[in-house]
Amino acid sequence: MQGAPGPDSWEQRAASLQIAGLTPLSTVDWPGKLVATAFLQGCPWRCTYCHNSAILDVRLPGVVAWSTVTDLLRRRRGLLDGLVLSGGEPTRQAGVVAAAREVKEAGFLVGLHTAGAYPARLPDLLPYVDWVGLDIKAPAHLYRAITRAGGDTTTADKAFESLRLVLDSAVDVQVRTTVDPTVLTDADVADLGAALADLGVRDHVLQQVRPDGATDEYAQALARVPRERLHRG
Length: 233
Prior knowledge:
The chain has helices spanning 7-15, 66-75, 95-105, 122-125, 143-147, 154-169, 186-199, 216-223, and strands at residues 19-26, 35-40, 82-87, 109-114, 131-135, 172-179, 204-208. It is of the alpha/beta class and 233 residues long. The chain has one domain (7-229): TIM Barrel. The longest helix has 16 residues, at 154-169.
């Protein structure tokens, strides 16, 4: 059995991150915290309403160096509470574990935005994470309609396995559902809320879908939805 990576290996892994963008200051990416947010490139899913479609392609290189992120944190020590690792899907990249570890060891809090697409990454990552914003998109049987990926329940299986891992870890978590009225009915949303409560979720937030950044096709579909069916988050 191999031992833990040495310092050089950890640094190299963090430096390997493909980072598509960096927000130096955010008050909305982690409730109650002032954070910087790094948006990691690539996602395996193609959700109907995705507003970050420009950063989904896993083949594109990053445009922000990890050193730029750590330099920002050093300059804003005492001003920022921490860093949120967002995406895309940040757990896609193996280097996210080393990055979270480095931020944590530098004295900052670490937040994670994830849709749970890579549950196998979480056991190594969660020990360095203080808060998770976890997207649970729909009841299991409707996951494919939103993510447009995988088999009928493949994506749902991964998302709900990730939810179980996060809940078992006791890391603070907020579960979010962006209500896509082109797929979800009010009954679907109610069923999902009840299922999440049964699993132990205590903080479930419903978010209104927005056409900003989504495809023209989706914006047109959303425009055809009666106004009374739009969830006001």
